[in-house]
Amino acid sequence: MPNATSQNGTVEDPAAPGVGRTRTVRFRVKRCDGPGKPSRWESFDVRVAQGEGANILACLQRIAANPVTAEGAKTTPVVWDAGCLEEVCGACTMVVNGRARQACSALIDTLAPNDGDEITLEPMSKFPVVRDLHVDRSRMFHTLKRLKAWAPIDGLYALGPGPREQPARQQERYAYSTCMTCGCCLEACPQFRLEPQPGRWDTAFVGANAIGQTLLFNEHAIAGELAPDRLDEMLAPGGVSDCGNAQNCVKVCPKEIPLTDAIAAIGRAATIHGLKRFFAR
Amino acid sequence: MSEPRRVIVVGGGLAGLAASARLAEQGLAVDLFSLVPVKRSHSVCAQGGINACNEVARQQGFSEWMHMDETLYGGDFLADQPPVYEMTHWAPKIIDLLDRMGVPFNRTHEGFRDLRLFGGSLFKRTHFAGATTGQQLLYALDEQVRRAEAGGAVTKYEHWEFLRPILAEVDGATRCVGIVAQDLRTMQVRSFRASAVVIATGGCGLIFGKSTNSVSCTGAAAARCYLAGAWYANGEMIQVHPTAIPGADKCRLMSESARGEGGRVWVPKTKGDTRHPSQIPPAERWYFLEERYPKYGNLVPRDIASREIFDVCVNMGMGIGGENMVYLDLTHKPREELDLKLKGILEIYEKFAGEDPRDVPMKIFPAMHYTMGGLWTTFTPEERAADPVMDRDSGRQRVTGMALGATNTMQTNIPGLYALGEVNFAYHGATRLGANALLSCIFDGLFAGVGIANSARDEAPDPASLAADVFDAPAKQEQDRAEALRARARAGAPDPEVNPYLIAQELGREMTDASTVVKTGERLEQALGKIRELKDRCARATLADASMWTNQNLAFTRGLSDMLRLAEVILAGGIERKESRGSHYRLDYPDRDDANFWKTTIAEYDADADAPRISYRDVIAPMVEPRARTYGKTQSAPEAVRQPETPAPAAS
Amino acid sequence: MPDHDRPAPFMQRHHFLLRRLHSLAGIMPIGVFLMSHLTTNSSVVWGLVNANRIPEGHAGAGTFQHEVNFIHSLPYLILIEVFGLWLPIAFHAVLGVYYATTGRPNHARYPYQDNWRYTLQRISGYVGVLFIFYHIATLRWGWTFLIPGGTQWEAQYAASTLAMALQGGGDGLTTPGLLVSAGYMVGVSLLVFHLANGLWTAAITWGLTVTARAQRRWGLVCAGLGAAMMVMAWSAVIGFATLDPAQARLAEEAVNRGHADPAHVEPAEILTQNPEGGRP
User: What ipTM, to 2 d.p.?
Assistant: First the structure.
């Protein structure tokens, strides 16, 4: 609130320059009180100013401060997951207007430019709902553990420099290394399915992100030592051969990671690894 | 073989993960607590790079000693020197280690690690992985901790909130012997025993409302340690990053690397020039940083750049279109090079501002970014012979570093309670140099981890030997605190007077306005009064959610109460420090005052007054004498500024 | 519950091998057979070029009869059929249906072209299995009760009986016959799509096309192949659905009697260009 002694100019004031007319945006939110509880839809009207740069999370914050539905019913604040708010942590992934994406980069001026426009929010459907828009993605981290997604270095002591690497190879690895485990590729994948039971995680399809990570680690001089172990996992049920080539993963990836390239490359490596294993046994 | 001693690490960012990996390697069992899955910690947001002396820079005249000197100079000599000495001398080894872990550092044609220029240095000494270096380093450490987790040495408690340290009298001294934490899904509150507790919870950006920080950076964990008796040092030292993209929910960082790779900051020379930036010829652009700082140009330290932008926009009214914005221009660089080195941040700008910064200059303004102050920590100095290679520019025979493995390394004033990374006050003094944060966090974890392991193994009492009540009582208190909040819950919007979200907004606005780029004693006092009012209202805050399952409303309100206590520390420190030093710039005391304030501010919680008590400790400075911190500033060039409809004088 | 004591089920132990064999079977022998089968069957149209060598009746039908005669002259035909065709098709079909049921098509939410093909690949698989079963059961195994008009397909009158089977009898196209012909049209079209798209995905599965550009390039090749096969498939179905059985019978008898041989070309014949078309 600007006052007589304002000295550091906050950008919060509604009269801030560049901020235009306000309008009402309706949010239809699929809510659920917890695992095993039924889902329901609630609507909220949120005032948004043109040009203020509001995103879905800013609107959810406004709903949290004023948890009253469009019909005037008092309710609880919507629960959601968020972190960096700049699309590098992956936390705020949800289904916005039917499509998996990060809520932080979903700008209201783009999605709902006119007064009365509607935006629907749903939790991701491929992971168990914790509450409302917040889901449990621990399966993705479990898969990274199973794939030994690390470099088996000798320890944290100073043992000299790492391997030299050509820039082309670094660029290739970097692309896969920007994967933020958000789960968009899995949400959009027709082959990846909700598996609430951790006991079935190791035989159900691992999905594109895991295949991309397999390539990332197999391509590194030290991490690549574990490539045969990772390829064993890729040959197992739920491995790379369960991919159905719908290629949605690469289209919804917010980091534009060439996931389908990884699927093909790992498919090739798995074929060779499978043949080797067949003849070596 | 007996069970290994357990160490609790709170926070899974770079510092917490580095500490966890080190402690696991040392044979300890680690319980790692984090509000978020550790791979989503705020360290992912770091963009530019990580500083370390390297072979190229060394052959150009750089050294570890100079890295230390730059860091101290940048921090306006407020940092204790031995930790900075040790950190800068470990830096090259840390880069090597990260390289072995598989961090995809950008490479030269020949396959060596590429380097970029960064603020506060005249040498290229910053290693980087695109413009998402923090993300890449975090992932590398996350992978190593996952490896330790798979081996059974680390147990993760993700979506758990640290509520307080547990203190106990052991052999006549107060020690930290565990923590109380809450599972944010089941809302279960319970205590955990440990031989040592490491706090690595980062900064407190959310106290300032819109900052560049993640939503988990509330500072509540640090506040809870402070409320339990830990000292909070240099709270007033808050870094405002000069280049951020203002938004409705936060200000998104536009990395210093944009300037490191050649980005230029300018405003139109004509006040209120409304032409499109590409229509403004170079002669009619005022590159004010380059003119005022011919040597460092756009790469002066952040506090200086922020103040200059502030001066140009607020004092001179020269911001773009009269608004508080300046241009950060990369359009003169080839697209391919930009994509190779800066893609990550350019995409952020493109997504959130809707314009391609490869074609159109970015519009930016300063925003709260980093917490130099933090929990006070100590160390054991170690005097040794200067290294002829690393210290060749020092002109000294003897230097003072930190003793590796000392059990008090980065220990707070409470034995058994350690603070690592951004949450402590070490290393950065009154301003942090760009690309030193990642270094300090990883160094802290790796270096202090050894001492913490020694402490847990050799010094600490076996927590199993302590009475159950030591742990049950604080857990019960936290349970009651949560219940009390829940008891006030009712669905729907609370009265604005007691609406926790609105109180938080008011806090953010007040702190941003009173205590960021420029401060005055009067305004700080006024803000302190406002915080007291907010504290009172927060004590009566009404929740809208009474549920016992994933109640974010409750966690938010509880955190807000602790954030307000930390806000008081920041303001009180600012009021008492009657000088200008680094990021702390007082209009009413514009000069540095070494005689009275070359000292570390210590805030101690006075429970009776529910307010901080401020005292000072001498800065430990055995090596470098303070000198004027000018960065070669020349007289600014207001004569180059054109008034509308006035013929242009030649640009200088 | 993981079963630590019992060995994993067969399908799990050989998961990757079965997936790859499934892919392989679709190309070889099934895909290769489909191409040759469509070449043969579309001869009812392209065989018209042999009009000068088949004097009586419909030259396309005659050419087709000639092709069929060749196939039926192969030794151990039944073994080739069982082990080279029916079993691979059954293997590909059973596994394919099982694999398809593990997915949940979502083209409504993600209406990308690739995703549509994912869905269509599965639909074409399901329909294809039914179609192939009907096709083999009615024409090869003689389940005539499934054919309107009850025509029994006979190898020595391959074209005419096939035409009758498609048309619902020998008296022109009936309504049930139209349904059968339309069913054939749909069935073969889906199978051609299934093969062309399967070739495209197989190249990714096996890791031949690793980059998006390579995949696009190979996609053009597959689309071209698919288009060519589609032309053959449609011409075959339309050709038989409109073939006059009586005209076909004339040509068949000529070929069967040895009075016409569309494959046999004598140099002299080319030179003399007998305008009557018949052989001396």
Answer: 0.95
Q: Is A166 an 8 Å CB contact of chain B? A: yes
Q: Give the residue from C4, C15, C16, C114 with the most A CB atoms within 10 Å of its CB, the best one to mutate.
A: C16
B523 CB near a chain A CB, below 8 Å? yes
CA atoms within 13 A on the CB side of C106: 24
Chains within contact range of chain A (3+ C-beta pairs < 8 Å):
B, C
- Phi then psi for residue A42, to 5 deg, are -130, 145
Q: What is the mean pLDDT of residues A96-119?
A: 96
Q: How many residues does chain C have?
A: 280
pLDDT tens per residue across all 280 residues of chain C: 444 556 678 888 899 999 999 999 999 999 999 999 999 999 999 999 988 888 889 999 999 999 999 999 999 999 999 999 999 999 999 999 999 999 999 999 999 999 999 999 999 999 999 999 999 999 999 999 999 999 999 999 999 999 999 999 888 899 999 999 999 999 999 999 999 999 999 999 999 999 999 999 999 999 999 999 999 999 999 999 999 999 999 999 999 988 777 766 554 444 444 444 444 3
Residue B39: closest CA among B150, B159, B153: B159
Domain residue spans of chain A: 22-134, 137-153+161-280
A246 and chain C in contact, CB less than 8 A: yes
Whether residue B54 lies within 8 A of chain A, CB to CB, comes out as no
Chain A residue numbers touching C17 (CB-CB < 8 A): 274, 278
For domain A137-153+161-280, the CATH class is mainly alpha
CB C80 within 8 A of CB C269: no
Token pair, residue B523, equals 């305004």
Residue type, A139: R
Question: Which tens digit of pLDDT belongs to each residue from A173-231?
Answer: 999 999 999 999 999 999 999 999 999 999 999 999 999 999 999 999 999 999 999 99
**Chains C and A physically touch (3 or more Cβ atom pairs below 8 Å):** yes
Strand A118-122, strand A22-32: pairing: parallel
Task: Give per-residue pLDDT as tens, B571-615.
Answer: 999 999 999 999 999 999 999 999 999 999 999 999 999 999 999
Report yes or no: B149 and A145 within 8 Å, Cβ to Cβ.
yes
Q: Which domains does chain B have, with CATH numbers?
A: 6-239+371-465 (3.50.50.60), 242-366 (3.90.700.10), 473-597 (1.20.58.100)
Which overall architecture, per CATH, does domain A22-134 show?
A: Roll (3.10)
Contact indicator for B17, B145 with CB cutoff of 8 Å: yes
* Shortest Cα distance, chain A CAs vs residue B389, angstroms: 17
Dihedral sign computed on CA atoms, order A68, A59, B43, B503 = negative
Say which DSSP state B640 is in: G
Distance from CA of C226 to the nearest CA of A (A): 18
- Reported as a pLDDT band with limits 50, 70 and 90, residue B61 is very high
Nearest C-alpha of chain A: how many angstroms from C59? Answer: 44
Q: Which of B23, B39, B45, B347 to mutate to test the interface with A (most CBs of A within 10 A)?
A: B39
- Measured CA distances, B537 to B76, B556, C149 (Å): 38, 15, 89
Closest chain A residue to B19, measured at CA: A156
- Decide if C206 and A236 are in contact by the 8 Å CB cutoff: no
Domains of chain C in sequence order: 15-102+112-262 (1.20.1300)
| pLDDT (0 to 100) of residue C5 | 54
Shortest CA distance from A267: residue in chain C: C207
Q: Which amino acid, one-letter code, is at C208?
A: L
Does residue A36 sit at the B interface (CB-CB below 8 Å)? no
Active site residue B302: yes
pLDDT tens digits along B81-105: 999 999 999 999 999 999 999 999 9
Does residue C120 belong to the interface with chain A, where contact is any CB pair within 8 Å?
no
Task: Give the containing element (helix H, strand E) for B155.
Answer: strand B154-158
